[in-house]
Amino acid sequence: MHHHGYLWTGPKQRFDDEALRRPPHPDPPPPDSRPELIQRHRDVHAAFPVVDLPPLETAYWLIKPSKLVRATWEDPEEATHWLRAQLTAYASRFDSATDRGTTRLTALIGSATERLTTGADLSHGFYLERPTFLSLALVSCSPNRTRPELPCPLKRA
How far apart are CA 63 and CA 153, in angstroms? Predict the structure, then answer.
């Protein structure tokens, strides 16, 4: 097993477009559905696998383009070091004083290695200067515990 790191920052309004953050329903709407519903399903079906937005279910990062992988590690501790570096780099921009506090950051980092060792994924989100959002994810791969059917994005590349 190895772990991929993902980082996304962008407008909160774009992050809130949940239709592009969840996989489309596997069955299209019935043919007699409203045309806009049919078109929306087509649009989401085409966009979800390639859009850079963080998926609602962390494991679905694995179906996104491999260029979105920021780094990959075999060792969970190395992945945790990356998480620490990202949190440290962005902490001064966190909108919430609680999120900027060392107690909160220490707790997030402290549990990361243990969680990754068990094959769990990590996903953290923070509001930055409004209206910007930061999403950080560490995703276990080959196999992923919650979605073992998802292939490694680097092996597809």
Answer: 6
Q: Which residue has the tokens 């966190």?
A: 94
Mean pLDDT value across the chain: 94
**% of the chain with per-residue pLDDT over 70:** 99
* Residue 111 CB contacts under 8 Å (≥ 6 apart), including other chains: none
Q: Note if the bond before 35 is cis, omega within 30 degrees.
A: no
14-55 tens-digit pLDDT: 999 898 999 988 899 999 999 999 998 999 999 999 999 999
Q: Distance between CA atoms of 149 and 54, rounded to whole angstroms?
A: 19
The SS3 call for residue 27 is coil
Half-sphere exposure of 13 (CA within 13 A, CB side): 2
